Amino acid sequence: MSPIQRVTLGQGGPEHDVANEAVRSFIGRRFDGKVAVVTGAGSGIGQAVAHRLAAEGAIVAALDVAVDNLAVTVDAIGANGGTARAYHCDVTSESSVDDTVASLAEQLGAPTVVCNVAGIGGFFNTVDMPLDRWEKILAVNLTGPFLVCRATLPHLLEHGGSIVNVASNTALMGQAYSAAYCASKAGVLMFSKALAAEYLSRGVRVNVVAPGGTDTPLMGAFELPDGADFKALRTMMTPLGFSTPAEIAASVAFIASDESTYTTGAVLSVDGGLTI
Ligand SMILES: NC(=O)c1ccc[n+]([C@@H]2O[C@H](COP(=O)([O-])OP(=O)(O)OC[C@H]3O[C@@H](n4cnc5c(N)ncnc54)[C@H](O)[C@@H]3O)[C@@H](O)[C@H]2O)c1
Question: Which pLDDT does position 7 carry in this prediction?
Answer without folding.
Answer: 52
